Amino acid sequence: MYKISVPVMNANVTRCGREKVLKQLKRFNAERVILALDKYETNGEKRRQVMKDLRENCAYFKANGFETGAWVWTFWLENNKSFTNMRSLNGAEIKEFMCPSDKNFVEFASGYIRDIAETGVDIIQFDDDFRYGFLSDSPACLCDKHIAEICRLTGDELTREEIRKYILTGGKNKYRDAYLKANGDALRAFAAEMRKAVDSVNPEIRLGACACLTSWDIDGTNAAELAKILAGKTRPFVRLIGAPYWAAEKNWGNRLEDVIELERMESSWTKTGDIEILAEGDAFPRPRTRCPASYLEGFDTAVRAAGCTDGILKYGIDYFSNTDYETGYAAFHERNKELYCGIDRLFGGKTCCGVRVYETAAVNKDINIENMFFSKAARTLAYNSVPTVYEGQGVCGIVFDENARHLPAEAFENGLIIDIAAAEILMSRGIDVGIEKIGEPLTDGVCERFRNDDNYILTDGAQIYDVRLKNGALILSDTETSHGIIPMSFRYENGNGNRFLILNVNTRSDRDNVLKHYARSRQYAENVQWLSGTKLPAYAYGNPELYVLCKKDNNTMTVGLWNFFADTALSPTVELDKEYSDISFLNCSGELCGDKVRLCDIPPYGFAAFEVRY
Predict the structure, then answer these.
(1) How many CB atoms lie within 10 A of CB 138?
(2) Contacts of 94 by beta carbon, 8 Å cutoff, 6+ apart
(3) Nearest to 187 by CA among 213, 222, 152, 153
(4) What number is the average pLDDT over the span 276-296?
(5) Using an 8 Å Cβ cutoff, are 151 and 175 in contact?
(6) What is the pTM of this model?
(7) How far apart are CA 353 and CA 346, in angstroms?
């Protein structure tokens, strides 16, 4: 059952009136309300007032049938002079955030969490700062306590600058390993102490945290591990990272389909035991003038259809304005209630199908890069209307960059789409990908020429390499450079029967426009069948950011299409993997023509779905 949790500011509930908040919560069909407390309050009188308000608000919402929780920042403490602040790898003091290696701070936080537990809440959640990364100018923490621990673990006396160099450059090394262990140990110990504080009041209270960008790797632990420590004897839970407002603000270059793929990716990493997984349905800073409701609804419906979470933390009530000021999020949720039921009916009980995206959580211990959280492989498929999966083998696989170091043997069975960095890694493992030599990088190619139709697509200075191919490699596209005509994409089958579609592109670069256009989209669709002998389950050509999700059971397939582009998708044609005999539609109309479906227009941020049967 897809559970809806809604966060509200504890202080705003008191200011605006509980009855008004209750009215809005009911519009969302919420089962759980999370009361956000903001940062730690060090003033004794103010702290007592926070807890008094929380106790009264908690009692009110529980009396009205809601599971009720509290939400508090983890390490954020302003105007602190008592505890150790985190420090970035560059040595900068992160003034607002305390380091969990400081036992005095851990004792302070334990007391605060104990006070929260005593208010009668059912659940306590730590906010987005249960981490070291992205709090300053570089990852953290290299405070004096962390440096001392790293030196103890390695047996060497090192300066901050020496440790920083080992962390950020070169391959795997014992100093980076020690840094990751020191980070992880401090977070694990902090989590255990917080659990102990809650247990001293009521061991039935659930305790969890929000995952963050660095929660999967460079923090030295992962969100699933921390969830289990925080949970104690209760069911673990975690809220994933990746929100609709990222698309509104283009944070880290993310589009709406990208954050949906991130949630699906994280979910595949989190399914270790019975962990409740919540999507981050955040429309920060929440008036629709800043983040439209269409972004939140598109995200919610896609995550619901994918079935990758147990529910959503849906930030539909403004944190600061009057509760009846921005009611648009609730209005759109109400309007979509029948649509939610239709999605549950068509997508429920089916398994996602498409191209398997191979993404590994813990890669930074082995490589020379600070963060690889955002999947370029997923981005290129999602933008180009190619459906994806994150478990199993898929109709074929795709792997970019350092993720190639972690490929399982079965990944090669259905063929792989790879970039030049993955190709180089596979070559170092003795795998023949059709390349004799990888030469120097080039950026002076202006256009990529696709040989099948002699079409030219601007490359905008994308970084490629002067490669020499083996006999048997079939060049699919090329570009003219100062070094002559250079292949930009080609396919190859080696002596073991392994098939590859290779993109001669450095996907680590921010210039990913070479991965997002109609010609690349068609290239993927056509070569999937060559790679594996199996067609894509569904594919729609010629509509930017028309996000496609497919799910199957024994005799039916459901296809969802979300138009996350500003233009209407004009009568899109969906190509299917085979001929089907019958079709039903959700939120659209259309016509089944054998192995194709012709749909009605899909407006900007609109959604359409259909189910076909053999």
Answers:
(1) 18
(2) 85, 86, 87, 88, 135, 136, 140, 141
(3) 222
(4) 94
(5) no
(6) 0.96
(7) 15
